[in-house]
Amino acid sequence: SSSSVLSRSVTEQFRQFSRNNPPSDFDLCVGVVNFITKTNRTCAGLCSNFLKEAHIGQRISCGLEAGSLKLPALHVPMILVCPGTGLSPCRSLLQQRHLQLLSSAASVKSRFGTGLKDLLFLGFRHQDGDFLYGDEWGAFSEWLAVHVAFSRDHEDKKVYVQDLIEEQGAHVCRLLKAGAVIFVCGRSHPMPSQVFDSFCEVLQMHEGMTAEEASAQLRTMQRTQKYICDTWG
Questions:
Q1: What 3-state DSSP class applies to 227?
Q2: What is d(CA 80, CA 222) in angstroms, rounded to the nearest whole number?
Q3: Nearest Cα to 177, choosing from 147, 140, 142, 221?
Q4: pLDDT tens by residue, 101-148
Q5: Is 40 helix (H, G, I), strand (E, B) or coil?
Q6: With contact defined as beta carbons under 8 Å apart, do 75 and 101 qualify?
Q7: 3-state secondary structure of 133
Q8: Per-residue pLDDT tens for 151-196?
Q9: Which residues contact 141 (CB under 8 A, 6 or more apart)?
Q10: Which terminal CB of the chain, N or C, has fewer other CB atoms within 10 Å?
């Protein structure tokens, strides 16, 4: 009935997505939500399934808001941690940084040849079928080191982005000493806290800090907007 439609439209809240591209384009990377609860109830994500079922050419009402992620200055290294669709906002940052570097002087790029390439940590379940934008990352290889965790492609264990952070601990610490900004994007639980713990572990192992000192350094980075989380869910 018309009354039920009106009621539904009033009570359902809008859904925010991070854009995938610079201002000239509009691109979304959406994970379709469908799952069964422990009580055997089927649940479907409202907006993700709406977008999935929309036909080509269909008009959808939407609005744009300023994002919270800002690209740091060219000389500032970046460490980006973005499992799953968390890569969406980070992909935009990387595209913008690449365009900046294409028109920059050679002196600006000199740090990339001294072990100070920016770092990108991606995480998916499987390489086949889940590796989002996998053919793009090689275009940034001159200045970006990409490490990918495929959590379900190992028979003996599961591998996550936090494992790769610890594996690349020496590189992580070099960038942090150079003033790097950390971006963590993706699901809000439990990934961000696990990633934080991995950075703490890296600082303890490679910089000889205590757990308290490592945590304090990262908390200071959070307060000064040098450790930025864009999470949802």
A1: strand
A2: 14
A3: 221
A4: 999 888 888 899 888 999 999 999 988 888 888 999 999 999 999 999
A5: coil
A6: no
A7: coil
A8: 888 888 899 999 999 999 999 999 999 999 999 999 888 999 999 9
A9: none
A10: N
